[in-house]
């Protein structure tokens, strides 16, 4: 690992660092620290220098106009409530707009982002000034603006290609994420009417969620436990049963192989939310399954699919098998054929039966090859919103609780934020879900061959 | 003695085979049952979601007619068009993003490459809609939360984060021999020319795969759509529409129409999926064979 890092540092070795620029820069380079682009203009790169200068002007203008105000409001998150004032002249109550903590927080976070972005540009301006200075001193060619522009399609292609996707990720993934994470440290919830004005509360919410005595805390540990049980069952049952099904279909003596495969894969082609909604209506107390079973006389009263805790939990796991097994089937069929036939032959010679062969040869081989797939499945199941939300909706839900008995962390998060307006607790749950996933994934991912030997293949 | 042994072996094998096929048949029935059920329900004459028999008593096409003609409350044709427009634009943007990022991470070497890949992995671990509320407020503050701008907002939501799902396409680009690039460089091609004249033409399977996955996403997502559309029924996508048909106030009137709607959107998606599967397999096996 360390050697790798050293290598990558050498590969992208760059003498034009900020430190060098400040230490060895001439007057123009040092001036660029205050007036961005000065160094470039002094050495003849006029357009580039002017562009840098405009960025600086725009940033300063924006900061004076709104940025500084945004930042100054961030520590308090605003405290003027909306007021009703009696207007004597018109004879009516008028509303005076108060602060909206949510917008203050959002604008504050945006301002911090813009500032961070500006610092990056500023750094590149100073380094670029130093670079032109060094090149000019040693009499080397200085790129004109047109050449710089052309390099975007060649040596600097990555800058051109990565910029739009990175902008998308920043605005629609990173920014919202940081915004939400900061909500975890506020009291933004319907408790005590903090939906418009709220304050920083530090780690209060984390204490509340992680404590064993608080009712939210108890719900959390319950939901976390069920989430892990669910993820383990959903992942391993899907995997093992899917693999057995694949083996059975692939047996030499099984007829109509393609027909069987078609039957199972058909269910993937139907959008998941459609099939899950259908399942839900079918399993209601008066739904198709109960009615048909009652009519045939097998049962007397309706089965409590989503009203009894154990029934509900088993139901969602079993229905998830319906959803998941076809995916496993698709995924493993090809790999199963790659298992060396000699292994099976020698097992047969030793007199091993099908069960022993499966556990001693097939399963270990498959586990070895498909570990990355299993990890994605596991993390995917922890975050399996659709199956739970569309099927049981978390039911059965104990009276007065915010989470039902089949709620996962992710559906609980959804309910807390979208339906029940505990935005701060929702954010805490999100962060804790991330912690759980990170522990599971990072440790295992980094140990798989496909991560370590990324270059090995080329 | 020996002969007896082989016959008992044969009967044993026959019995195993019969058991295997019976079990497969039962399982196949379980898997096909819900799908068969929707198709039958979509042609069912009786209204309501509570039924007493598996097969409908009367068959009709009225459910499909209702779906496309009864547009006063739940306007299915409009939802269909909304989804189609959103799907087309978001699939164009996503595909460009995914191909650009995968090419950079696979072929170009720059300082931020590894950090970027690690960042993508870490971001992927956060629950996707943890930040949904935040996304809504961001869209609101840039004026994309009202009127026809909702469509733009949905396109951005579906394609904005596309740069994070580059792994599969990157894996594909990794399999294209580097010698091809080098030959082009010798001929004086720039890196960009190599990208769109060498890499892209060789990448049909993975491009089709990316296009189809991003095209399907808006049809099957209803969580983001629900949060962003809220009460603006005009801009609903089919997924929210179908979901609403099963809400308490509509289910009695709309249950069979729901089944018809499900059939209507499942068939095109199923066809796309079959294509997808073919290109997915091709994409997995690499670009240049032999």
The total count of helices of chain A amounts to 20
Largest interface: A-B, 90 and 89 residues
Backbone CA Rg of chain A: 31 Å
CATH homologous superfamily (4th level) name of the largest domain in chain B: MetI-like
Architecture blueprint of SSEs:
The complex is a heterodimer of chains A (458) and B (290).
Chain A (H helix, E strand, L loop, with lengths): L1 H10 L6 H7 L2 H8 L3 H5 L3 H28 L9 E5 L4 E5 L4 H37 L7 H7 L5 H27 L20 H7 L4 H36 L6 H13 L2 H11 L5 H9 L12 H30 L2 H9 L4 H29 L2 H7 L17 H11 L3 H23 L3 H4 L6
Antiparallel strand pairs in A: 1-2
Helix pairs in contact in A: 2-6, 3-6, 5-6, 6-8, 8-19, 9-10, 10-14, 10-16, 11-14, 12-17, 16-19, 18-19
Chain B lengths: L1 H41 L19 H8 L6 H32 L5 H13 L6 H10 L7 H12 L6 H9 L2 H9 L4 H12 L1 H17 L2 H7 L8 H8 L2 H38 L5
Structure characterization notes:
Chain A has 458 residues and is mainly α. Chain A folds into 2 domains: 18-151, no CATH class; 205-452, MetI-like (MetI-like fold, Orthogonal Bundle), CATH 1.10.3720.10. Chain A contains 20 helices and 2 strands. The radius of gyration of chain B is 25 Å and the shape is flat. In chain B, 74% of the residues lie in helices and 0% in strands. Chain B has 13 helices and no strands. Chain B is mainly alpha-helical and 290 residues long. At the A-B interface, α6, α8, α10, α11 and α12 of A face α1, α3, α4, α5 and α6 of B.
Features of this protein?
heterodimer, A: 458 residues, mainly alpha, MetI-like fold, 2 domains, flat, B: 290 residues
Short note summarizing the structure:
Chain A has 458 residues and is mainly alpha-helical. In chain A, 69% of the residues lie in helices and 2% in strands.
């Amino acid at each position: 690992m360390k050697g790798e890092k050293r290598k990558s540092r050498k590969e992208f070795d760059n003498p034009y660092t900020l430190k060098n620029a400040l230490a060895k820069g001439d007057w123009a380079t040092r001036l660029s620290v205050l007036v961005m682009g000065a160094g470039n203009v002094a050495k003849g790169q006029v357009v580039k220098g002017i562009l840098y200068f405009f960025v600086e002007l725009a940033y300063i203008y924006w900061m004076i106009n709104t940025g500084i105000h945004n930042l100054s409001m961030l520590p308090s998150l605003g405290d003027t409530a909306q007021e009703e004032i009696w207007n004597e002249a018109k004879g009516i109550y008028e509303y005076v707009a108060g602060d909206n903590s949510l917008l203050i927080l959002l604008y504050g976070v945006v301002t911090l982002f813009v500032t961070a972005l500006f610092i990056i540009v500023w750094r590149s301006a100073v380094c670029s000034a130093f670079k032109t200075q060094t090149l000019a001193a040693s009499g080397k060619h200085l790129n004109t603006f047109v050449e710089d522009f052309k390099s975007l399609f060649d040596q600097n292609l990555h800058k051109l290609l990565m910029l739009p996707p990175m902008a998308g990720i920043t605005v629609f993934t990173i920014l919202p994420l940081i915004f939400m994470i900061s909500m975890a440290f506020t009291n933004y919830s319907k408790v005590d009417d903090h939906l418009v004005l709220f304050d920083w509360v530090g780690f209060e919410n984390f204490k509340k969620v992680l404590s064993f005595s608080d009712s939210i805390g108890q719900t959390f540990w319950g939901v976390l436990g069920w989430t892990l049980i669910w993820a383990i069952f959903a992942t391993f049952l899907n995997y093992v049963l899917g693999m057995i099904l694949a083996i059975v279909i692939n047996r030499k003596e099984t007829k109509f192989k393609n027909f069987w495969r078609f039957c199972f894969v058909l269910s993937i082609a139907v959008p998941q939310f459609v099939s899950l909604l259908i399942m839900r209506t079918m399993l209601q107390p008066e739904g198709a399954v109960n009615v048909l079973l009652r009519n045939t006389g097998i049962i007397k009263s309706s089965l409590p699919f989503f009203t009894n805790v154990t029934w509900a939990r088993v139901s969602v796991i079993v229905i998830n098998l319906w959803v998941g097994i076809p995916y496993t089937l698709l995924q493993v069929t090809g790999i199963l054929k790659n298992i060396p036939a000699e292994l099976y032959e020698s097992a047969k010679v030793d007199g091993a039966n099908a069960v022993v062969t499966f556990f001693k040869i097939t399963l270990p081989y498959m586990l070895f090859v498909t570990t990355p797939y299993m990890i994605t499945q596991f993390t995917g199941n922890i975050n399996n919103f659709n199956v739970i939300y569309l099927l049981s909706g978390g039911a059965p839900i104990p009276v007065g609780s915010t989470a039902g008995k089949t709620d996962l962390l992710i559906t609980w998060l959804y309910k807390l934020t979208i339906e029940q307006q505990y935005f701060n607790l929702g954010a805490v749950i999100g962060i804790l879900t991330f912690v759980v996933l990170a522990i599971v994934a990072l440790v295992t991912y980094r140990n798989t061959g496909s991560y370590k030997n990324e270059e090995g293949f080329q | 003695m020996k002969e007896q042994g082989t016959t008992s072996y044969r009967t044993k094998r026959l019995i195993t085979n019969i058991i295997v096929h019976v079990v497969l048949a039962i399982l196949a029935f379980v898997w096909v049952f819900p799908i068969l059920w929707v198709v039958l329900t979509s042609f069912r004459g009786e209204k309501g979601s509570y039924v007493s028999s598996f097969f409908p008593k009367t068959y009709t096409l009225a459910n499909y007619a209702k779906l496309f003609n009864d547009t006063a409350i739940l306007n299915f044709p409009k939802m269909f068009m909304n989804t189609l427009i959103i799907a087309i634009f978001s699939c164009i943007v996503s595909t460009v993003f995914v191909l650009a990022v995968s090419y950079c991470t696979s072929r170009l070497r720059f300082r931020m490459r590894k950090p970027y890949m690690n960042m993508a992995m870490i971001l992927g671990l956060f629950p996707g809609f943890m930040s949904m509320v935040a996304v809504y407020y961001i869209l609101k503050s840039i004026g994309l939360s009202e009127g026809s701008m909702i469509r733009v907002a949905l396109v951005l939501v579906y394609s904005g984060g596309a740069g994070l799902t580059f792994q599969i396409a990157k894996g594909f680009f990794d399999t294209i021999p580097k010698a091809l690039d080098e030959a082009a460089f010798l001929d004086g091609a720039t890196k960009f020319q190599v990208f769109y004249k060498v890499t892209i033409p060789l990448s049909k399977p993975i491009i089709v795969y990316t296009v189809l996955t991003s095209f399907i996403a808006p049809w099957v997502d209803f969580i983001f759509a629900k949060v962003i559309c809220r009460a603006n029924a005009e801009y609903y996508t089919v997924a929210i529409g179908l979901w609403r048909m099963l809400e308490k106030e509509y289910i009695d009137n709309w249950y069979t129409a729901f089944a018809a709607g499900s059939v209507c959107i499942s068939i095109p998606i199923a066809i796309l999926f079959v294509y997808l599967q073919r290109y997915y397999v091709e994409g997995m096996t690499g670009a240049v064979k032999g």
